[in-house]
From TrEMBL:
Keywords: ATP-binding, Nucleotide-binding, Transcription, Transcription regulation. InterPro entries: AAA+_ATPase, AAA_lid_NorR, Homeodomain-like_sf, HTH_Fis, P-loop_NTPase, Sigma_54_int, Sigma_54_int_dom_ATP-bd_1. Residues 116-346 form the Sigma-54 factor interaction domain. This is AAA family ATPase. Transmembrane segments: none annotated. It comes from Emergencia timonensis.
Length: 435
């Protein structure tokens, strides 16, 4: 279309009749165009309009951009061709794309600061600092025991940052062996190793370009990975495995750990230079036992969610029940509280509206008062192996895992270490064995 317009407009030395002839030549093309076209003489009178132009006038379409070319005759302006590009369809598709992107972002980033429940002074201070930190590009290090909400904080910070419309990618650094973690983070070139994918693979740093990368359990990375990570943070570029070329990346790092990094530096297990690169904006989330006043609030919040999830109708909790929850040490923090409440609700019935102290006590001890399910000790005394070997092995596996987790007061990292299996395998087994 552009070429045809230029051709018509360029016939500057020809007579108006000749121009009309040319217009006649290209008329079939203009007639078939899906843009609105009109040709005007020097007085502005329309001497030709294509069918799409007529349609557009009838529809009163306003989402248009205009493009015009003057027609010259003996160096004098003889008229012009005007093309109106209809943007309504493009705009409709753009709106649809924005809507889908919004939806996708909601799936990717689950939490915002309003999902962090609590009124404890220390917690509120952390939330405020996190909100300030979110607006800066600084690297953030989130510290806190397991289940204190480090991941929620990381999500909320991304969601409140100027990068909120870009990707938020999380990786648990302790869940993968070193080589796999390296290729996940930095990507690899085709043929980098046996089994490498054809065409290579982009690493998470590249995937998170312009967005945020959340490195969970950062205290668990090997010395070699610490060096590689330090290099990326200093140079702002990654070198995929098997490649000699670097790729620039613009990624905001949030990391988290419950490991005593300062002690690890003393012992030579964590690099001091990397620590300072990561610890630009430290946030310490207090454990639940140091903010007991939040237990009631979080319990109410979780019950609302679980009512829907388990199809229950609990609208009240006995005050004595809350007292009981507040007396607990909560080494597994909010995650442990979630488990106890889930257990309590599962054992209740649809018609129940009050969560009683007895039900809470029962959920805390893992015993079911209603159905007379057996306690751990009772299970112990009646313990017999099933005949089926697979079931017997699973039973032993379950017991070992349960004991390791309870020995370490819910800390799955330590339990996995003790059991001699990677944390990822432990999570997989817990899911499979319903632990
Ligand atoms: N203040 C809070 N308000 C509401 N829910 C919370 C809060 N803190 C934690 N949770 C919930 O507790 C669970 C554990 O939180 P999260 O996974 O963020 O903890 P974490 O510190 O990252 O744990 P880990 O170190 O074991 O990975 C999540 O389901 C989260 O929604």
């Amino acid at each position: 279309m552009e070429k045809t317009m230029q051709k018509v407009a360029k016939e500057s030395f020809m007579s108006w009749n000749r121009i009309e002839e040319i217009i006649l030549d290209v008329k079939p093309l203009f007639d078939a165009a899906s843009d609105a076209i009109c040709i005007q003489n020097v007085e502005g009178e329309i001497i030709y309009r294509n069918p799409y132009y007529e349609k557009m006038i009838k529809r009163g379409n306003r989402e248009l951009v205009e493009d015009e070319r003057y027609i010259y005759h003996n160096d004098r302006q003889a008229g012009k061709i005007v093309v109106y590009h209809d943007l309504s369809e493009i705009n409709r598709l753009k709106r649809e794309l924005d809507r889908l992107n919004q939806k996708l972002r909601k799936v990717q980033v689950k939490y915002s600061f309003k999902d962090i429940i609590g009124k404890n002074k220390e917690l509120l201070k952390v939330v405020n600092t996190a909100k300030i930190a979110a607006m800066t590009p600084a690297t953030i290090m989130i510290r806190g025991e397991s289940g204190t909400g480090k991941e929620i904080f990381a999500n909320a910070i991304h969601n409140n940052s100027p990068r909120r419309n870009e990707k938020f990618i999380k990786i648990n650094c302790s869940s993968l062996p070193e080589e796999l973690l390296e290729s996940e983070l930095f990507g690899y070139k085709e043929g980098a190793f046996t089994g490498a994918r054809r065409g290579g693979k982009r690493g998470l740093f590249q995937e998170a370009d312009r967005g945020t990368l959340f490195l969970d359990e950062i205290g668990d990375i090997s010395s070699r990975m610490q060096v590689k990570l330090l290099r990326v943070l200093q140079e702002k570029e990654v070198m995929p495995v098997g490649s000699t070329e670097t790729v620039p990346v613009d990624v905001r790092i949030i990391c988290a750990t419950n490991k005593p990094l300062e002690e690890m530096i003393e012992e030579g297990a964590f690099r001091e230079d990397l620590y300072y690169r990561l610890n630009v904006f430290p946030l310490f989330i207090p454990p639940l036992r140091e903010r007991r006043e939040d237990i009631g609030l979080i319990t109410e919040y979780l019950l609302n969610q679980y009512n829907e999830f388990y199809n229950r109708n609990i609208s009240e909790i006995e005050p004595d029940g809350i007292d009981l929850l507040q007396q607990r040490e909560w080494y597994g923090n909010v995650r442990e509280l979630e488990n106890v409440l889930s257990r309590a609700l599962i054992n209740m019935e649809e018609k129940d509206v009050v969560l009683t102290k007895a039900e809470i006590a029962s959920a805390l001890s893992g015993e079911n008062v209603r159905n007379g399910k057996k306690t751990a000790q009772e299970k112990e005394s009646n313990f017999t192996f099933p005949n089926n070997l697979k079931e017997a092995l699973e039973m032993v596996e379950s017991r070992c895992i349960e004991e390791a987790i309870s020995r370490h007061k819910g800390d799955k990292n330590k339990a996995a270490n003790d059991l001699g299996i990677p944390l990822r395998t432990l999570y997989y087994k817990c899911k499979k064995l319903n632990i």
